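To whoever is on call:

I kicked off a structure prediction for a single chain this morning and the downstream step that reads the tokens threw a length-mismatch warning. I double-checked the sequence; it's 292 residues and nothing unusual in it as far as I can see. Pasting both halves so you can look.
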Amino acid sequence: MEIKNLFFALRPNQWIKNIFIILPLIFGKKLFSFPSSLKILIACLLFSIVSSVVYIINDIIDLDEDRLHPTKRFRPIASGKVSFRQAKLMACILGIASLALSLFFNFYFGLLTLSYLILNLFYSIILKNVVIIDVFCISAFFLLRIIAGGIIAEVTLSKWIIIITFFLSMFLGLNKRRQELKLLGKNDSLHRQVSIKYSPYFIDQMIAVFTASIVVTYMLYAVDTGTVALFRSKNLVYSIPFVYYGIFRYLYLIHKCEADGDPTRILLSDIMMQINIVLWISVCIAVIYFGL
């Protein structure tokens, strides 16, 4: 039972975010290239361990706040199922091991994972309490995943994939902030310091900006002459409806089905979102690798 609690303290459900590491492999036309594909899988594993170290540290720092939170109080550390001492020991062991393995695996990848860890420490201690900057930090964490994938796959990242990742991560981060505000209501004692500086209306305005930015930017990427020349096909446009549906489905779940805003939880629980992502990836692979 204790092993199970230690495992859940790593937040394994959040590892799905590391799928962003695979995207440069897919859009860099190296999905079926060995050993690039194997290296990416190893990178995902190492990055998952490093990100789990970040989650443990964050749970330690936010321990008092999480114990008052209506849902976070059930996390292993906040609930006391994993002791403060166990959490610190696990963070130290996994942190040192994962960083050492990352540097050995690829020096530049190792430096990036170290940067990810340091930035997250700054975020947990200081930056998460700075309005708007807190969401920019969340976006930076996703961008680091994309860059990590580019390093390991030895792919030059397209400006489009960087811009779209930035817009998408801002969209996800803002929706999560919105649902946190709604969940905690007007009880300021339960809010993070930064949450009080937001309002649902203000967040909705920013979400509208990034919603439009995502769909327009992806459409421009799909029809860009550079994209057409790289993939030798104009048919990536057929993937556009899946991007639109995914964004609109997410907003639907947030606004009409009272989802909590956690993208991993939504992805793991909504079958329509899962089908849509599979179809989007299938269309992209068909166009990029088979010229359909």
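Update from on-call: the warning came from a stale cache, not from the record. Cleared it. Sanity check on the structure: The chain has a mean pLDDT of 88.
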